[in-house]
Amino acid sequence: MKVAIIKYNAGNIYSVVHALNRLGIDPIVTDDTVQIQTADAVIFPGQGEAAKTMTYLKKKGLDEVIRQLRQPVLGICIGMQLLCAYSEEGETNCLGIFDVPVKRFHAPEHSFKIPHMGWDTLIKPNGALYQGVPENSYVYFIHSYYVPLSEYTIAENDYILPFSASMAKDNFYATQFHPEKSGSVGEAILKNFLQLV
Amino acid sequence: MSLAKRIIPCLDVKDGQTVKGTNFVNLRQAGDPVELGKKYSEENADELVFLDITASHEGRKTFTDVVRRVAAEVSIPFTVGGGINELSDVDCMLNAGADKVSINSAAIRRPELIDEIALNFGSQVCIVAIDAKLEADGKWYCYLNGGRIRTDRTLLEWGKEVADRGAGEILFTSMNHDGVKQGFANEPLSLLSDALPIPIIASGGAGCMADFRDTFIQGKSDAALAASVFHYGEIKIADLKKYLKQEGISVRI
C-alpha cells in the first residue's frame, strides 16, 4: 500500500511516519503532485498556523491537488481545519471540502485553559473510522481553534462547548486530535483509516 | 469537564542511560530510557519527560539517538529538556521526534528565546520550567542552573512574562518541596493556575497518591510530574489512576 504524507512547513510530520511504521507501513513524505495523486491513501498532518500553511500549499499548487483527491484522505489537527471553508486563525480562506468555519476558543471562565491540551474523550464516535473504538475513549488534543458540530461530525468532544472531534465527507476524513500520539486508541483509528483503501 | 489531568513520569538520562533506579524487574534493560518509556506508556502514563543531564558533547549525541528511538517506539507525547539553549537545539530535538521541549535557565538568561520558539514552532512545543524557592521574605525566587544560582525574579512575575511571551505550559518545581516527598507546593501552584491562561504542571514533592489528588484539587494543577516514586515502584501509575478516579478526578484509564 502506498501512503503519502503531505509535506509542508509544519512540525512533527515524522510522528505520523513513526505511527504508520508501527503498523507495518512505510509511507512517503512528499509535496510532489504526482506522488500524492498516485498514492492509495493520503495523510494531511498537522501542527502549524492556518494562514502560513495555506500560503505554502497554494505556492506549491497543492490546494487544487488536495481538493481533487478521490482516494481516502485523512486530515489531522490543522490538516482537518484547513479542509474547512474558512479559519478565524489569520482570517484564512481554506480548502472548502467541509463547508464549515473554524473558530477560536473563547474561555467564558478562567478554569478553561487555552489551548485545549491533553487527553480528552471521544463522544458519539461512529462510522468506519471508529469501528471497535468505544465511546469515551481518550485521545490526545492540542488546539486553540475548533470546528463547530455539523452534518459532517462523526465524533464529538466537549471543551468549553461541544465541537467536532472528527469529521467525514465522501473520501475525506479528519480528526482534530492526534491519532499518531494517542496510544493504542489512535493506532486503532489509523488502522481503520488504512482499511478504507 | 472530561479533559484528563495528566500524570507525567520524568526520566533523567545520562550517557544514554536512565540514572535513577527502577523496580521494573521484568525489563531486559532497566536502564534503557526507551524501554522504560515504553513501559510507562503501557501503564497509561499520559506524557513522558526525558531530561538530558549529560554535560559532554558525546553524551549530547547519545541523547539525540535516545530521542530518535523514543519517537519511533512510543505512541504518546513526550518532552525533552536539559541543555536546550538556542533555537537550533530546539530544531534538533523536534527533528529527532520530540513533541515539546522544556527550557529553564536559557529562558531566564534570554527571555526572547520563548518568543522565538513560539513563533517558529508554535506555543505548543514550548514548556518553560521554573525552579523557585520560598524565602524568608515570603516571596518565591526563581533559580538558575538546577537551583545553584538565585535570581531576583519572583515566581508570579516571571510566570506571567513567560505566558505573555508565548510559552505553551509552565512546569513549576518548588525547591522547598522537591525530594521531600511531603506533597506538591499547592499554594503557589494554585496562584499560578488562577493568574495564567496556560496549563501548569506541578513538579517536586510527590510522596504518596494523595499528594497527586491534592495538587489537582487544591493546587489546581493541570498535570503532575514525578520521578522517584514511579522509578522505584513506590507508586504504580495504573494504581494511581484508579485511586484518582475514585476520588472524582478526571483521568485517562
Quickly list its features.
heterodimer; A: 197 residues; alpha/beta; 7-stranded mixed beta sheet; 24% helix; globular; B: 253 residues; TIM Barrel; 8-stranded parallel barrel
Indicate the CATH topology of chain A.
Answer: Rossmann fold
* Class by alpha and beta content of chain A: alpha/beta
Helix content of chain B: 25-40%
Tell me, what's the shape of chain B?
A: globular
User: Mean pLDDT of chain A, rounded to whole units?
Assistant: 94
The helix fraction of chain A, in percent, is 10-25%
CATH superfamily membership of chain B: Aldolase class I
* CATH fold type of chain B: TIM Barrel
**Sheet with most strands of chain A:** 7 strands, mixed
Largest interface: A-B, 37 and 31 residues
Give a short account of the largest sheet of chain B.
8 strands, parallel, barrel
- With strands numbered from the N-terminus, the spatial order across the biggest sheet of chain A is 2-1-3-4-13-12-11
Give the termini separation of chain A.
Answer: 8 Å
- How much beta of chain A, percentage-wise? 25-35%
Q: Tell me which CATH architecture of chain A applies here.
A: 3-Layer(aba) Sandwich
H/E series of chain A, N to C? EHEHEHHEHEEEEEEEEEH
